[in-house]
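Record 1 of the preview.
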Amino acid sequence: MEPIERVSGRAIPFGAKNVDTDIIIPAKWLKTISREGLGEGAFESIRETQGNVFDDPAYSGAPILIAGDNFGCGSSREHAAWAILDLGIRAVIAPSYSDIFSGNAVKNGILPIVLPQEAIDRLMEVAQAGEPIDVDLDTQTVTTPFQDRFTFDIDPFRKHCLLHGLDEVALTLERKTAITSYESQRASAQSWLTKGTEINA
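->
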């Protein structure tokens, strides 16, 4: 996955609370195992309303989504993170998230930022004014052109994964030498377990 260090640009001022994964990507889109093209179905029920923020040209290509409390609740479908990423969104800012959605977001290269409601309200104002927002993962800050500066906490392991673009496969490959060494030693010490098989170094 693509690493994240900084995300800058306009933000989509969504702000709705208790948005579940069925709203993010309806069940009818779950037949695919591909991560591409799901942006077309993202927030489908909301986009049926004329004048919605997701189809507003002013926010076209915006890499940041500002959401409300309990974002990503509901089912554990990873497609929700895939759909958001396919929209071009790399950071979501909300007061709280479903634990499963938050985990899926990080595993797919999306930074879920938790800020208090007062900060969300201010960022909504900035976004609605069409001004850019800057997210710096290294310093764990969200800033605006108006000298607003909000700091956020993030689990150090999640931060490391996002900064270096490490999904679960990449994390496993980082240990390739140790895994290969272990398998070779195991094959030698317990040869009866690998009889008729080969260990690829």
